[in-house]
Each structure stands twice: as C-alpha cells, then as structure tokens.
Amino acid sequence: MTPTFTLADGTPLPAVGLGTVKAHGEDMTATVGSALDAGYRLIDTALRYETEGGVGDAVRASSVSRDDILVTTKIPGRHHGYDEAKESVRLSLANLGLEQIDLLLIHWPLPKVDKYVDTWRSMIDMQKDGLVKSIGVSNFTEAHLDRIAQETGVLPVVNQVELHPYFPQADLRAYHAEHGIVTESWSPLGRGSELLKLAPIADAAAAHDVSAGQVVLRWHHQLGAVPLPKSSNPDRQRQNLDIFGFELTDAEVSAISSLERGRIWDQDPDTYEEF
Fold first, then answer.
1. pLDDT tens sequence across 139-161
2. Is residue 237 part of a domain?
3. 3-state secondary structure of 139
4. In this model, does residue 25 exceed pLDDT 90?
5. H or E element: which one contains 250?
6. β partners of residue 13
C-alpha cells in the first residue's frame, strides 16, 4: 500500500503518482491500466497532453474502485479566465468520461496574460459546485501564490513544479510547508539528463541494493514531495512505486541535493508561456 499525504482540504494524496505525457505511439489506456494494476492510485494528466481520453478509459475499465483513484488534470494557458476555465473543465470531464475531477490545477501561471487570479476564482466556484474535488496549481512561484491568497483568500492544496536533484527548490518547498501546500514533482528523474549516472545517486543505489531511479524517487519522498515518474513499462512502473522499503541517510540526501545546478529546460514561470 502506497503511503499518502493529507491535503489541506482533507483529501489523501498518494505519495507517488504516474505522469502521462504521451510518448510517440504509446497506448495510454494500456499504460495507465498496467499502472493501476501495479498499485498506482494517483494519475496525472492535462488537457494539453491529449492523454485524458486514455486515462479515463483505463480508470473506467479498471477493477480498482473509482473512489480509490485520484485523477489530476490541468487548465492550459488558452483557457485562462473565469468562463474559459469552466469550459476547460467541461472539455476535460468529457475527455475523461468522469463525473468529477479529483484534483484540478492551473498548468502555468502566464503572468504576462495576467488571468491566473480569475482562473483561480473560477476553480474555487467549481469546487463549491462539486465539479472538482480539490484545487491546486502548477509552476507557481511564491509571488504567484501570495497573490492568489491575497486576492481570493484561498490557497492551493498542491503546487506541482519542476523538481529533481539538479533543482531541489528548497526555498519553494519551505514556503509550501509553511502554508500547508503539498509539493508535487514533475520530471522527478531529470528526464533525458545524465542525472541517474552521477556518483551520489549511484553510490546510494549500490548501498541499498536498489536502482538509481528508486534512489531519486526516495529522495523526493524524504523531502516531503510527491514524484510523478513517467513510464509505460510495467516492470519499471512497479520499481518506481517500490521506494518505501529502504531509507536514505541524511548524508545521502544532502549529497544528492548538492547536485543542484538549476532548471533543465529554462522554463521560468515568470516568463515561460504555454498555451
């Protein structure tokens, strides 16, 4: 059984989730189906990923109770705004074939567009109406979080951000902890980088007789973050979920965190735009 964090609204959030950015030719229904069979109960998608249909098909076909699965999706930049956000949710619900979104996030803040507060207000109302169970954000900085709190009085329960040993986000994680926000990590294994081959990770893997990927995912867990690794391989899916039978030492966690060098893709939320 995967441990859970408790969100500020009382919802249990599994400590590891499955990312669903689609690879070329991938059968997302099969990918998510095998993940559910392996024990995943947190599935992360987004309207922009164009994987909501496969995720919904897998959830509906699974023998796992719908009540035990937490499906996350995200509002893209093109749907920022009060009314636009409601339309985005209608599209996502239709794609997913579900009656409620468990966790809805704003995908990027897009401060130049300056509609993320209106989008957030819409999400607050959709939560009250029962279309959405929990509401959060993705790629928000402390300043963005402060603004929506000041203007609406409601903080997100989750902020999903780029987080891996190259970019541990210590200051943002501390802000989250202070304000009762759970940190989720996208690209937790440093997608496409040489990260898993580096000495602090390889040494810890050898010491604990686990894979380098398991070491990094365990590092996230010990930081209090929820990693969302992406894999369509059933064996790798199971391995990525199997991180609760060992514990990194404080020295190992510090050594891995010392690999910090910054964002991999230079996607600064103050300037990056994605629609």
1. 999 999 999 999 999 999 999 99
2. no
3. coil
4. no
5. helix 250-257
6. 5
Determine the number of helices (DSSP H) and then strands (DSSP E) in the chain. 10, 10
pLDDT tens digits along 106-131: 999 999 999 999 999 999 999 999 99
In degrees, rounded to 5, the angle at the alpha carbon of residue 23 between the alpha carbons of residues 273 and 224 is 65
- Split at pLDDT 50, 70, 90, the class of 223 is very high
192 pLDDT band (50/70/90 cuts)? confident
| CATH label of the domain that carries residue 19 | 3.20.20.100
Longest dimension (CA), the chain: 53
Residue 103 placed within a domain: yes
Q: According to the annotation, is 221 in a ligand binding site?
A: no
How far lies 220's CA from each of 58, 253, 267, in Å?
A: 27, 9, 20
Mean pLDDT of 61-81: 98
List the one residue out of 178, 166, 179, 241 whose CA is nearest residue 211: 241
Question: pLDDT over 90 for what percent of the chain?
Answer: 97
Residues 253/219, Cβ–Cβ less than 8 Å: yes
Q: Hey, which bits of the chain come out as E strands?
A: 4-6, 12-14, 18-19, 42-44, 70-75, 101-106, 132-138, 158-162, 182-186, 225-227
* Total domains present in the chain: 1
Q: Is 40 a catalytic residue?
A: no
pTM of this prediction?
Answer: 0.97
Is 7 among the domain residues?
A: no
Within-domain flag for 274: no
Q: For residue 76, give its domain range.
A: 13-192+224-232
